[in-house]
C-alpha cells in the first residue's frame, strides 16, 4: 500500500500537491510509519496515535472495533475523507507521483515567547523536546505567558523545535486564539 500524507496550512487544511509519500505492507504498517515520524508520537501505541489525530478533526469519525489492523484501515479512511492522506495505486511508479515538497520555514511566534524560550534553552534545566517540562520551567522562571503559549500551542512548539522559530516582527498575532 502507498499513501501521500498531505502537508497542512496553519488552519490544519490539507495543501494540494504537497506531502510525503510512504509505503507499507498494510494499513497498520502505514500507521506505524506515520506514528514514528516525530519523537512526540513515536512513544504512543498505534491506537493512542490514531485517537489523538482523530480527535483533532472537525468531526471525529467513529473507529470501529475489531483488531488494530481494522482500526488502522478506518483511521486512514477517515484521514482520506478529510483530504489529509491520499491512497496511491500500487501500479503508479514512485517517480510518477507529482508532489511539491517545500520547506515550510520557521514557526512564527510572539517575540516575547521566543526570547523566553531562548532563556529557558540557555538555562539548561530542561530538554527542549519535552514541552510539558518547558512549560513548567517557564512558570518557575516567572514566564507565565510563555508557559501558557507552550501549553496551548504544543503542536506549533514541537514543529518549531525541528524547523526553528522566528519572531512575529510585524506585530501580527501569530495565532487567532492569542489574547494579551
Tell me the Rg in angstroms.
18 Å
How much of the sequence lies in strands comes to 5-15%
Mass-distribution shape: elongated
Number of strands: 5
Helix and strand content put the structural class at mainly alpha
What order do the SSEs take from the amino end to the carboxyl end, as H and E? EEHHHEEHHHHE
Q: How many distinct helices?
A: 7
What does it look like?
The protein is mainly alpha-helical and 180 residues long. It has two domains: 2-96, no CATH class; 107-167, no CATH class. The protein is built from seven helices and five strands; from the N terminus they run ββαααββααααβ. The protein has helices spanning 27-35, 46-55, 68-81, 111-123, 131-140, 144-152, 154-163, and strands at residues 2-5, 20-23, 85-88, 107-109, 165-167. A three-stranded antiparallel sheet has the order 2-1-3. Helix 1 (27-35) packs across helix 3 (68-81), helix 5 runs antiparallel to helix 6 and helix 6 packs across helix 7 (154-163). The protein is elongated, with a radius of gyration of 18 Å. The termini are far apart. Residues 172-180 have low confidence and may be disordered.
Amino acid at each position: 500500500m502507498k499513501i501521500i500524507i498531505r502537508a497542512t496550512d496553519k488552519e490544519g487544511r490539507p495543501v494540494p500537491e504537497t506531502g510525503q509519500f510512504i509505503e507499507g505492507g498494510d494499513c497498520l504498517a502505514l500507521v506505524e510509519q506515520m506514528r514514528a515520524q516525530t519523537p512526540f508520537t513515536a512513544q504512543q501505541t498505534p491506537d493512542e496515535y490514531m485517537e489523538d489525530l482523530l480527535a483533532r478533526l472537525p468531526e471525529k469519525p467513529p473507529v470501529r472495533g475489531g483488531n488494530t489492523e481494522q482500526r488502522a484501515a478506518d483511521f486512514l479512511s477517515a484521514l482520506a475523507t478529510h483530504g489529509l492522506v491520499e491512497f496511491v495505486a500500487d501500479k503508479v511508479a514512485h517517480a510518477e507521483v507529482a508532489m511539491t515538497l517545500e520547506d515550510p520555514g520557521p514557526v512564527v511566534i510572539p517575540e516575547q515567547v521566543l526570547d523566553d524560550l531562548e532563556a529557558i534553552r540557555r538555562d539548561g534545566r530542561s530538554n527542549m523536546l519535552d514541552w510539558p517540562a518547558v512549560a513548567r520551567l517557564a512558570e518557575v522562571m516567572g514566564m507565565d505567558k510563555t508557559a501558557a503559549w507552550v501549553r496551548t500551542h504544543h503542536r506549533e512548539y514541537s514543529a518549531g523545535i525541528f524547523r526553528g522559530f522566528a519572531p512575529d516582527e510585524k506585530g501580527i498575532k501569530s495565532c487567532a486564539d492569542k489574547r494579551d
